Amino acid sequence: MELKPKLTRRNFMKLAAMMGATAFLTTYKSEIVKAVSEVKDYWHINWLNGAACTGCTISFAQASEPDLVQILTEITVGTSGLPIALPDYMETIHPASGSLAERLKDERWAQGTPGRRVLIVEGAVQEEGYCTIAGKDFRDHLKEAGEVADAVIAVGQCATYGGIPAAKPNPTGAMGVSEFFKEVGINKPVINIPLCPVHPDHLVLTIAAVMIGATPDLDEYGRPKAFFGKNMHDEICPYRPYYDRGIFTRRPGEEGCRYVMGCKGPITKTDCALRKWNMHISYCVETNMCIGCSEPGWPDKFSPFYKPVASLPAVLGVDFGTLGQGLLGAAAAGIVIHGVKRAVTSGKKEEKEE
Amino acid sequence: MAEVVMDPITRIEGHLGARMETKDITTSTGTWTIVDKAYSLTNLFRGWEIILKGRDPRDAFFITQRICGVCPAPHGETAIQALDHAYGVTPPPAAVLMRNILHGAYYVYDHMIHTYLLIGPELGVLAKYPPMVPPALGKKGIKALGLGSSYAACIEMQRKVNRVVALWGGKFPHHTSEYPGGMTVKPTLDRIANTLSAMTELWDFVVNVMVPDLMAIVSKNDHIAETVSSLLDIDFNGLQDLGQTYGNFLSFGLFPDYNDYDKWVRVQDGEEGYRENALIRAGAWDGSPKKFTHKKIREYVKYSRYDDSATGLHPSEGVTKPVKDKPGAYAWMKAPRYDGKVYEVGPLARMINTFGLKWKIDVTNPVNGKSFTFEWNVLNPKGSVIDRVAARVAQTLLFATKTMEWAIELKQFMHDDIVNAKIPDYSYVPDNAEGMGLWDAPRGALLHYTKIRNKKIDNYQCIVPSTWNLGPRDDMDQPGPVEKALEGTWLPKLDVPTIANALYPEKDIDASAFGLGTVSWGDALAVALTPLGLVQLNMEGEYNTTLAITIVRSFDPCIACGVHFMIK
């Protein structure tokens, strides 16, 4: 009996979304490796770090099924023995340093096979003068790389939407890759894989998708819908039953829904609750709460992190106002996702959110 | 004099370069180029402290972790200790134990990844030790030549140990579970059992792979020393002659005693002390142990891109303005000094301040009863590449064992209320307060200072490990540790395979799997490096910077960590 649906380019991301990427990666591991191996030419990967903390690289090293060693060694080009996707440039793990590293980027990546060059960017893009590599501003490195890249993947909250470097008062004028591309006139789609840091499954699947030509379906913020199509709180939170019964955590260590302590699940789209982290063992809400790192505008729109979101989403069609009154007294009322308006404790005073 | 620049320096965290001025020495065997003066170029500025100002003090736990994705956990811990201090709360024993477990596991990951992924490749090449050279020839290379077997195992093991961090912290990098006065996670049998099972596997890896790998490198040391000495006609003792600094070592201490936490806090209050009831002690070693006090810390900016008015200040008084194009400045890092002197921080500083110059780490795995002893006599009391690596290995063993012991001790607290009564609920923040956290990240001493006014951050400052080690010259023109460590380093005019062949001329490597027959070490490396375009590895012009870059990496640089802006 064949339990696995057939893996094709057309249904690659669709299946990943349908099954959840974790199950997909496990079920289809050998098919992914095989499909990618059938690509007969070396794929060029250029992993650039701007205003980054390297957390996304470290997160990538937590990848399993396939893991980093498999990615670097087992998925080889034909019979060459060469890994299909050993980065031509990746500061944190690359053997080469200095002028050789820069030369490889020019010779191997920039002049690599057209159609097979993937640019991965970690970290935000700042105004000139705050980040230099080999004596050249990061902006110039990124612009050059962006111009020849065939696919661009921005990983983590900083490269996608600016992240903490771009938080108020944004002292270095930091921004995400898409915004930078607009500024310098590079008209290329950027696949945004946010979260802080990037989830290794999201990245591995996206790279695999790009290589076999299965273009991910993106949402309005450039995120693959397969991973960022679900509302954490409404659709997948295991603590949701507590919320529905009005059992809230108010002191560290208590059992209950984390809404009152400031959980940003209600205004966050990600599949963390299904996928979990570090070989699928846990995720933020299991030990504390969601701080909303998959969303544009993070952290400013989501901090103070311990302040509850200003409103409650509707619950199972029940009138949120009544429910909110019932559960939280005068705590909050009104549906506000991504701050249209928010009702504050008085119930009367309203203020605009960004 | 020539100028040799390494930029970017890879296999570290962040954007670092080094500029070296050379001089030539002539011996009976020829004229050789060595480093005369070195300058550590720190090339990224993000402005974290400006961003923290005005926020909820508790946000600092989440935000400062994002200073560095390689060492986020220590920033979180230090931020929380600063808040504990500001709140005036003592975390209960169960919370201290859980923090110790989380961070103990985290350290094991960090020291492993540095040993194998970051500095390991150069050591493996220098010592003709294939398991530590990256698996550049794929599975076939691992099988036929043993290339990268430890490297590959490390990737798997660091992933397993990070599961333990995630169990207690939600995820890694960037965990979520610490809160002023305690933890937001409960001690459960499930978590304890998972921790013990994962750490037992880790313990075996450390004992059976990591320690033997270190000893394999060390066993080649005499050979390296003799070959280089006779080639250059100099007195070169081996890896302990690479990367010596001033012999001053600073540690803030790690892993407090859960039954005696108030003693731990006294150093945060400003007292002089050793934190002697902690697993790793605080101290300022300058040839002999000295008590540590944070009052002796100052930061200097003469060569840093900040306004000169802010130089020589204690962190609680910091006022600095970035000046992008400051004449003469070559660094975004500041130069912190202790008692006006240059101190090295990091694993070696921790070991020396805790155990002196002779270490005997006796450990027993509390799960299966296996015992192991690690002994090390510091080879260079002023610090060296090999001593720094050995310190990491020693701590990996020590922390892996202690993490299990703490997990077992935690069982006795499972039924206690872990919530500290002084924190009524998640809505509480003190109106006005200040606090200091003093901890050690894997790369060294870490300080967070927070000042709260009207329930918001009024001032937040970090003095981080890499500013101590990688910072530039100070106002007294004293080179920083790495700048000092590079002085006198040989820059051979030979590529890596040629050096490897000079060190190991014998043809004894069976490369028949690659159609080559039996070849020498350098030729085998050339086979691995050529298809990747890496034969010219570490060549800057005619100079080979392998030794220099290995010295820099031995400090485990973290540039994102080291660069920020302080504002009062």
Under the CATH scheme, which architecture of the largest domain in chain A would be assigned? Answer: 3-Layer(aba) Sandwich
**What level of helicity do the residues of chain B show?**
25-40%
Number of strands of chain A: 9
Spatial shape of chain B: globular
Q: What is the radius of gyration of chain A?
A: 22 Å
Instruction: For the largest sheet of chain A, list the strands in their spatial order.
Output: 2-1-3-6-7
Low-pLDDT stretches of chain B are none
**What is the CATH level 1 assignment of chain B?**
Mainly Alpha
Q: Strand content of the residues of chain A, in percent?
A: 5-15%
Low-confidence stretches of chain A: 313-354
Order of helices and strands of chain A: HHEHHEHEEEHEHHEHHHHHHHEE
> How many H/I helical runs of chain A?
15
Q: What's the name of the CATH homologous superfamily of chain B? A: Cytochrome-c3 Hydrogenase, chain B
Taken as a percent bin, the fraction of beta residues of chain B is 15-25%
DSSP helix fraction of chain A: 25-40%
Span between termini of chain B: 43 Å
Radius of gyration of chain B: 24 Å
Binding site for [4Fe-4S] cluster 1 (chain A): 53, 56, 158, 196
Pfam families (chain A): NiFe_hyd_SSU_C, Oxidored_q6
InterPro entries (chain A): Cytochrome-c3_hydrogenase_C, NADH_UbQ_OxRdtase-like_20kDa, NiFe-Hase_small_C_sf, NiFe_Hase_small_N_sf, NiFe_hydrogenase_ssu, TAT_signal, TAT_signal_bac_arc
Binding site for [4Fe-4S] cluster 2 (chain A): 233, 237, 257, 263
Description:
Chain A: It comes from Archaeoglobus sulfaticallidus PM70-1. Chain A: One of its GO terms (biological process) is anaerobic respiration. Chain A has 354 residues and is of the alpha/beta class. Chain A folds into 2 domains: 9-227, Rossmann fold (3-Layer(aba) Sandwich), CATH 3.40.50.700; 232-347, Cytochrome-c3 Hydrogenase, Chain A, domain 2. Helices cover 34% and strands 9% of the residues of chain A. Chain A has 15 helices and 9 strands. Chain A has helices spanning 12-19, 21-37, 55-60, 68-74, 98-110, 138-148, 156-161, 177-184, 200-211, 225-228, 232-236, 240-245, 272-275, 284-287, 320-328, and strands spanning 44-49, 89-90, 117-122, 132-133, 136-137, 151-155, 190-193, 341-343, 350-352. In chain A, the strands form 3 sheets. Chain A has a 5-stranded parallel beta sheet, sandwiched between helices. In chain A, strand 8 and strand 9 form a beta hairpin. In chain A, helix 1 runs antiparallel to helix 2 (21-37) and helix 2 packs parallel to helix 9. The termini of chain A are far apart. In chain A, 56% of the residues are buried. By secondary structure, chain B is an alpha+beta fold. Chain B has a single domain (2-495, 536-555), classed as Cytochrome-c3 Hydrogenase, chain B (Orthogonal Bundle). Helices cover 38% and strands 19% of the residues of chain B. In chain B, strands 1-2-3 form a 3-stranded antiparallel beta sheet. In chain B, strands 7-6-10 form a 3-stranded mixed beta sheet. Chain B has a 3-stranded antiparallel beta sheet with strand order 13-14-15. Chain B is globular. The two termini of chain B are 43 Å apart. The chains are: A alpha/beta (354), B alpha+beta (568). At the A-B interface, helix 3, helix 4, helix 5, strand 4 and helix 14 of A face helix 1, helix 2, helix 6, helix 7 and strand 5 of B.
